[in-house]
Amino acid sequence: MSQPTLPKSLKIYTQDGNEVLKVYSITREKDNLIMDCKVLDAMRMDVMITPDEVLDNLRMLMKAVVPYALFLPLFAVKRLFKPRAQKRAASAEIK
């Protein structure tokens, strides 16, 4: 019998590696973003982000989120080549 597949989620961790939030989906309802999430692996809920909240906190978003999004292509390339480098290092140790 096959195992049920869990929905894909964006996981958010504390600095010590504990999972605090899983985001299963983000949808738009009128002007708001609605996130289907699970907090502390216990309570699943829909949370809402309003345009006012985003606009009031634009400085924080511009400082952190926008530069992070701009670096995502670099992170993706590094991720593609990381396994190859590890394989080369392992094969060099064998020789």
Count of alpha and pi helical runs: 2
Q: Give the N-to-C terminal Cα separation.
A: 44 Å
**Percent range for helical residues?**
40-55%
Low-confidence runs (pLDDT<50, min 5 residues)?
none
Structural summary, described in words:
This protein is an alpha+beta fold and 95 residues long. It has 2 domains: 50 residues, no CATH class; 39 residues. Helices cover 45% and strands 32% of the residues. It has a 4-stranded antiparallel sheet with strand order 1-2-3-4. Strand 1 and strand 2 form a beta hairpin. The longest helix is centred in the last third of the chain and has 37 residues. The protein is extended. The model has no long low-confidence stretch (mean pLDDT 84).
Question: Topology of this structure?
Answer:
Elements: E1 10-13, E2 19-29, E3 32-39, E4 43-49, H1 51-56, H2 58-94
Antiparallel strand pairs: 1-2, 2-3, 3-4
Tell me briefly what this model is.
By secondary structure, the protein is an alpha+beta fold.
Summarize this structure as a short list of keywords or feature phrases.
95 residues, four-stranded antiparallel sheet, 2 helices, 32% strand
